[in-house]
Design brief:
- With 791 residues, the protein is an alpha+beta fold.
- The protein folds into 3 domains: 252 residues, Beta-galactosidase, Chain A, domain 5; 237 residues, Glycosyltransferase (Alpha/alpha barrel); 83 residues, no CATH class.
- It contains 17 helices and 31 strands.
- The strands form 6 sheets. It has a 10-stranded antiparallel sheet with strand order 1-2-7-8-9-10-17-14-13-12, with helices on both faces.
- A hairpin with a 2-residue loop joins β8 and β9.
- The longest helix is centred in the middle third of the chain and has 22 residues.
- It is globular.
- This is Glycoside hydrolase family 95 protein.
- Keywords: Hydrolase.
- It comes from Streptomyces violaceorubidus.
- Pfam families: Glyco_hyd_65N_2, Glyco_hydro_95_C, Glyco_hydro_95_cat.
């Protein structure tokens, strides 16, 4: 696949450019789960745009800052919607559920900028290179200007919670450097002291999303609570310090050029951040002085440790996670290199965006440059946040999951009040969107289309991640202490929310199917009875709570008992006349037949898997929806086709995911921006994560209880190997295939004691291995058999 002029070149683990970034979507991302950085690789000025994962507008009070829907109003609205649906009046049901809406979630914000000005000797710039190495998580810029060769290296360390940039001039005269700090937030103060500088900020009390254009944004209210933040920086160098003179570095408006030096041949810059954020769902604590003190504590520790040790610790920490998994080809072509890079990139981005002690990856991961980002760069929990974490277990990155579980736990606490207030139900629920404050209400100000504003089943979908983590071998303590109370609470809500339908089955009313609508005489509508995804999630959660009760020693828990009784009354998906999965209980004509959301296929993926009798309808639904769509939708389709084992349909989906997208593109068509972040458009990182998970699904599946090798290898793949994927219940698998996509061998080992016996299959043959006895090698045998030998 050709690249655009001046576009990137890539190997399976490296992305390179021959010029500085001219757009944010050409810059290359770095991160440590807290600090996100986008260096632009400039020559006269290196501009590093910074994010802090805890930098959000608002506070926990923002959800109800302008009032809240009362319990009486909510119960009246739900009853009205049910009556309207019983009478076939979808428009009245639409109006009724709008009465449940609050305002909007808060926004994930840009945090600041580090600017390094470089004064070169006169002369042309030659030999320019800017690259990101996924193996080392290092951004490197090198060039020669006026006889001086300059090399800048930047990393962001998770162990030391710091950004490190080194500047070296191996040939030519020393350089004159300036260092500045800036922020698009409200700047409260800045200054410099010796070789250190700092800047403090305040975050807005409210930021409305772009789809609320009439709302002022951002809003700073001195009488309301919001976060404070700080950046602290220190440099050391072999040149001569000179007064910065207060002159603004190019492009800055805040701290300006806070530090300056002359004749520098080697410099080390360390930057840290701090905020008054305390925990997901909890109120901020302190002011900008506390934020600065926190940043300085990390800065002092990092500076004392020294650049060499920082770099070594960062490299070892990253390699410990990144090197576990690798996709290789025997004879890679350009497309193969791009595919392998994108697979590895998803893992790199998840390592960079989500680590224990931080916040989860947002719609844009850890990186955002807008004060009013699309969809608030929030947690959209009707697919997007969930997709962010699809690769975590299967590509052996469990260390990236704790922030998601922290969010789900916080949402379950606040969502219990929402379930009681809006639906008179026990347990907990959440709707389409949440934020770092654990927002759980429907959004929309009473005016939003219920297609994207009414859907109380998000909590059930989030439970799938805890259930999967248990299935991948998380262990009894996690199942008992973390997963059980959250899944039990979601099941309690569903048991109260389910209603008996006229045919005696259990269903959900009112019900929507994220973010789709059907045609009626009154116009497109979104609310009906028992959408396929709602029933699928209900079945998934109730099945899971029964299994967790058994596995954690609670078989007679009353919620599990009630779930066991309810499960036989849940209907399985029906098929429409055109052969597709029926999206709502009643037959409807879709307003958008090719809609990007594949909600009725939840049970097929990422749910427990395809029922054999539903496989043809799942396939027909995918056919009707078509291949082309947004980046994340392409990834979902790729995973679903892999579950169906449609190997011949996979190459076209992969090609659509790999195509070039201009940063200014609009519409709904996936692909990759120059920096290989996924397009919706605009940028959404879920497509990156979903692609990585879908490729893993092509090579290894284990949701049926069998470790299934090469179940859906794309029909055009050459010989290759994929090392380090993980199968349920905690089996590390290395496998290889030949040009005919036949298995040449696989090695399996348990991640810990107690993995026990597992069944391994390939191409209809199977064999059992006992992983408690050690690793096994599996390969094809005579007559269509599968052989297993120890070691």
């Amino acid at each position: 696949m050709p690249t655009r002029p001046h576009g990137p070149t890539q190997t399976p683990h490296r992305l390179s450019f021959a010029r500085p970034a001219g757009h944010w979507l050409e810059a290359l991302p770095l991160g440590n789960g807290r600090i996100g950085a986008m260096p632009d690789g400039g020559v006269e000025r290196e501009r590093v745009r910074l994010n802090d994962g805890t930098a959000w507008s608002g506070s926990p009070a923002s959800e109800f800052a302008h009032g809240r829907v009362g319990a009486a109003t909510a119960r009246e609205a739900v009853a009205e919607a049910r009556r309207a649906l019983a009478g076939g009046d979808h428009a009245a049901a639409d109006r009724a559920v709008r009465r449940l809406q609050e305002r909007w979630t808060q926004a994930y914000l840009p945090f600041g900028e580090l600017t390094v000005g470089v004064d070169h000797p006169p002369g042309p710039v030659t030999g320019y290179s800017r690259r990101l190495d996924l193996r080392t998580a290092e951004h490197v810029v090198s060039y020669t200007a006026g006889g001086a060769t300059v090399v800048r290296r930047t990393v962001v360390s998770h162990p030391d919670r710091a950004l490190l940039m080194t500047i070296d001039v191996p040939r030519g005269p020393g350089l004159d450097l300036t260092l500045g700090l800036d922020s698009p937030l409200r700047i409260l103060g800045h200054g410099a002291d010796g070789r250190g500088a700092w800047l403090t900020t305040r975050m807005p009390t409210d930021v409305a999303p772009p789809h609320e254009p009439d709302a002022p944004s951002p809003v700073y209210d001195d009488d309301a609570v919001s976060l404070r933040g700080a950046m602290a920086v220190h440099w050391s160098h072999d040149g001569q310090d000179v007064p910065a003179g207060g002159a603004a570095a190019p492009g800055t408006r805040g701290g300006g050029a806070l530090l300056a030096a002359r004749g520098v041949r080697h410099a080390e810059i360390v930057l840290t951040t701090g905020t008054t954020f305390t925990a997901i769902g909890a109120a901020p604590r302190g002011d900008e002085r506390d934020a600065l003190e926190a940043a300085r504590r990390d800065l002092d520790a990092a500076v004392e440790r020294g650049a060499a040790a920082l770099r070594e610790r960062q490299r070892a920490d990253h390699a410990r996670l990144y090197e576990r998994v690798e996709l290789e080809w025997d004879a890679p072509d350009e497309r193969g290199r791009q595919l392998a890079f994108l697979f590895h990139y998803g893992r790199y981005l998840l390592i960079s965006a989500s680590r224990a002690g931080g916040t989860p990856a947002t719609l844009q991961g850890l990186w955002n440059d807008s004060m009013r980002p699309a969809w608030s760069a929030n947690y959209t929990v009707n697919i997007n946040t969930q997709m962010n974490y699809w690769p975590a277990d299967v590509t052996d990155l469990p260390e990236c999951l704790p922030p998601l579980f922290d969010l789900v736990e916080a949402v379950s606490v606040r969502g219990a009040k929402t379930a009681r207030r809006l639906y008179d139900a026990d347990g907990w629920c959440a709707h389409h969107n949440t934020d770092v404050w654990a927002y759980t209400s429907p959004v929309g100000r009473g005016e939003a289309d219920p297609a994207w504003a009414f859907w109380p089943l998000a909590g059930g979908w989030l439970c799938r991640h805890l259930v999967d983590h248990v299935a991948f071998g998380a262990g009894l303590p996690f199942a008992r202490d973390r997963a059980w109370p959250i899944v039990r609470g979601a099941a309690r809500f569903l048991l109260d929310w389910l209603v008996e339908l006229p045919d005696g089955t259990l269903g959900l009313s009112p019900s929507s199917s994220p973010e789709n609508r059907f045609s009626t005489a009154a116009g497109p509508m979104a609310v009906d009875v028992s959408s396929a995804i709602d029933v699928g999630i209900a079945r998934d959660v109730l099945t899971s709570v029964v299994a967790l009760a058994r596995d954690t020693g609670r078989p007679f828990d009353p919620v599990a008992e009630a779930a066991r009784s309810a499960l036989p009354r849940l209907p399985h998906p029906e098929t429409d006349e055109d052969g597709t999965i029926r999206e709502w209980r009643g037959p409807h004509v879709m307003a958008e037949p090719a809609h990007r959301h594949l909600s009725p296929l939840y049970e097929a993926f990422p749910g427990p898997g395809i029922r054999p009798e539903s496989a043809a309808a799942v396939a027909r639904t995918l056919d009707v929806r078509g291949d082309d769509s947004t980046g994340w939708s392409l990834a979902w389709k790729l995973a679903l086709r892999a579950r169906l084992r449609h190997t011949g349909r996979l190459p076209a989906l992969i090609d659509l995911a790999l195509r070039e997208v201009d940063p200014g593109a609009v519409g709904e068509h996936g692909g990759l921006y120059p920096n290989r972040l996924s397009a919706h458009p605009p940028f959404q990182i879920d497509g990156n994560f979903g692609f990585t998970a879908a490729i893993a699904e092509c090579v290894l599946q284990s949701h049926t209880g069998t470790v299934d090798l090469l179940p859906a290898l794309p029909s055009d793949w050459p010989a290759g190997r994929l090392r380090g994927l993980v199968a349920r219940p905690g089996v590390v698998v290395d496998l290889a295939w030949d040009d005919g996509r036949r298995l040449t061998g696989a090695r399996l080992r348990g991640r810990g004691e107690g993995t026990g016996e597992v069944r391994v299959s390939w191409d209809g043959a199977s064999v059992e291995v006992d992983l408690d006895r050690g690793p096994w090698t599996v390969r094809p045998g005579e007559g269509g058999t599968l052989l297993a030998v120890p070691g």
